[in-house]
Amino acid sequence: MDAEGFYDALARMFERALKYVLTLPKTQQGTFLVRLGRVRQLGQNVGWGVGDDFNHFWAEAGLAGEE
User: What is the CA radius of gyration of the chain?
Assistant: First the structure.
């Protein structure tokens, strides 16, 4: 796998994890969203547009402004 493929896969995994967490009951989402928020923050330092992709999926899920 080339570098671009790796980073695309990383972004897709983040998107899938976020979508899955949002299917859980609201009472169970909090801890996972905190963890994914941390992953999103760490993704800002990865490069290859990973941080932008993470932010896009976060905003698309209606979580913009939440950490």
Answer: 12
pTM of the full predicted structure? 0.89
Residue 2 falls in which region: left (phi positive, over 0), alpha (psi -120 to 50) or beta: beta
Tens digit of pLDDT for each residue in 31-67?
999 999 999 999 999 988 999 999 999 999 999 876 5
- DSSP labels for the chain? --HHHHHHHHHHHHHHHHHHHTTS-HHHHHHHHHHHHHHHHHHTTT-TTHHHHHHHHHHHTT-TT--
